[in-house]
Amino acid sequence: MKGLRGARERGRLASMRPLPVLKADCSACAALCCMALAFDAGPDFGHDKPALHPCRHLAGNACTIHARLAEAGYGGCARFDCLGAGQRLMAEVFPGADWRADPALRAPLAEGLAALRAIHGALELLVAARDLPLGGALADEHAALMALFHPPAPWTGEALRRFDLPGAKARLRRFLQALRPLV
After folding, report:
1. Looking at residue 97, what DSSP letter applies?
2. How far apart are CA 33 and CA 86, in angstroms?
3. Residue 58 phi/psi, 5° resolution?
4. Per-residue pLDDT, 148
5. Apex CA 89: angle with CA 177 and CA 149, to 5°?
């Protein structure tokens, strides 16, 4: 029975659309993290920056101190990884959006980035879980969670807004806790 369920899950995963790249590609983004995120001056950030405002070190879509972030006091920026959510949001959810030309887009882009970053974080964990000997109910729940966080239709702004992220994250947390005996 275990082999049958594993084969069933592999079949389901094979029929899904390809997973997104779960690694940041800043060159394909619109510097969303440099605009959307807030930070406070301290050991990880060199100055205060409110959410929805571009960082003072941003020129176009590039950070002017990127090569020396940690040395300049921006270790938090150096460590941040959107897991590919930024470029995916700009390519699939808000293609052609320009938050500089239309500041009204800043809040929806920031909300979309936060949601998609959390979704990509969940997918990263679920991809890692594929290497475990999942069987029975765990294999079924893994497939269901993959479909929840990576639905058959691409994400839209409306779908991201409607997505029950807290509920989905709670369900993922329960699944991950059930994996403890396997790791």
Report:
1. -
2. 8
3. -90, 130
4. 97
5. 25
Query: CA–CA distance from 10 to each of 7, 42, 135 (Å)?
Result: 5, 47, 12
Check pLDDT > 90 for residue 158.
Answer: yes
Residue 182 · residue 132 · CB < 8 Å? yes
CA distance 19 to 129: 15
Strand partners, 58: 63
Listed in sequence order, the residues at least 6 apart from 14 whose beta carbon sits closer than 8 Å to its beta carbon are none
Burial class from Cβ neighbours inside 10 Å (0-12, 13-18, 19+) for residue 72 reads middle
Residue 135 DSSP code? -
Per-domain boundaries in the chain: 2-22+106-182
Rounded distance between C-alpha atoms, residue 182 and residue 176, angstroms: 10
Packing angle, helices 136-149 and 165-178, rounded to 10: 150
User: What's the pLDDT band for 7 if we cut at 50, 70, 90?
Assistant: very low
DSSP letters, 4-64, are HHHHHHHHHHHHSPPPPP-S--GGGS--HHHHH--B-SSSS-SS-B-TTS--TTEETTEET
Candidates 58, 61, 39; CA nearest to 50 is: 39
- Please, what is the Cα angle at 24 between 171 and 113, to 5 degrees? 55
Q: 62 or 9: whose pLDDT is higher?
A: 62
